[in-house]
TrEMBL record:
Keywords: Coiled coil
Keyword Heme belongs to the record: no
The UniProt record lists the keyword Coiled coil: yes
Protein name (database record): Histidine kinase domain-containing protein
Coiled-coil regions, chain positions: 58-92
Length: 266
């Protein structure tokens, strides 16, 4: 049994020395007060030194592990904060778009009201009111009505954005009904040519979507085209192409015959 223990101690010592040659430099110091009588005692002292170093390494590793866990918690908290900040920033951006659209429609309504008032005042100065004056008056009234509808929808959107609970309000309708609602909101186009491209078979297909928000997107796209075409010399043309894909997806595309977008804007 003594021989077996000596053999195991020899193996441990060789492993320890191999580790030292690979990872450490210098000689082990044996306290001068201790008298080493046998090779076994020397081996035992080396093993004690190895054990002490092993314990210190374990303590250092445990400390490093704790620091890593703390760093992980801090990193997760930072990631969550960044996600919340990003969501907040996106809300502010969308709110900015809604406010800009709100101001745009208020400006349109205000301009139409001023023009209408000016026209009415001129009509009172005349003995007879011409048919053209009546047509213009009706046009201004329709524009005021369209802008009022847009402002009403945008007010609801802005309130939802401000509360932070922007939700979809799905409703059932057909493409024919959706087109009628778009017509009401696209009155600002005026005499510019506006075409709808859709198939008869799709008109009565029931759809479930947030009509107000989808309409807002389409109105924005058409308004961008309309404002661009006002500066064009050729007659403006805007097309709204609506189709149902695979009986489940609604595809809406807006085209115009205006010039391409300049590179600096892109």
């Amino acid at each position: 049994r003594t021989r077996l223990i000596s053999r195991q101690v020899d193996i441990l010592c060789r492993q320890f020395l191999a580790y030292r040659r690979e990872h450490e430099q210098g000689e082990l110091e044996i306290p001068s007060k201790i008298e080493v009588r046998t090779g076994m005692e020397l081996r035992v002292m080396m093993l004690r030194e190895l054990w002490n170093r092993f314990q210190k390494t374990q303590e250092a590793l445990a400390l490093n592990l704790t620091e890593l866990e703390n760093s992980k918690v801090q990193l997760e908290q930072t990631v969550d904060s960044l996600k919340r900040a990003k969501a907040h920033e996106q809300r502010l951006v969308e709110l900015g778009y809604a406010v800009a659209e709100f101001g745009h429609d208020i400006g349109n309504a205000n301009g139409s009201i001023l023009s209408f008032c000016t026209l009415v005042l001129k009509m009172f100065e005349k003995d007879l009111v011409s048919t053209m004056d009546l047509v213009r008056a009706l046009t201004y009234i329709r524009r005021i009505k369209h802008s009022s509808v847009n402002i009403s929808g945008l007010t609801g959107d802005i309130v939802e954005f401000a509360k932070g609970n922007m939700k979809l309000h799905r409703e059932k309708m057909t493409l024919e009904q959706f087109k009628e609602q778009l017509d009401v909101q696209l009155g600002f186009v005026g005499e510019m040519k506006l075409e709808y491209h859709l198939t008869e078979q799709d008109l009565e297909v029931p759809l479930y979507f947030d009509c107000r928000k989808v309409s807002r997107v389409v109105v924005n796209l058409v308004k961008n085209s309309w404002e661009k075409l006002l500066d064009e010399e050729e007659e403006g043309l805007i097309q709204i192409r609506i189709s149902i894909l695979d009986q489940k997806d609604l595809q809406i595309q807006v085209y115009d015959n205006g010039g391409s977008i300049s590179e600096n804007i892109v």
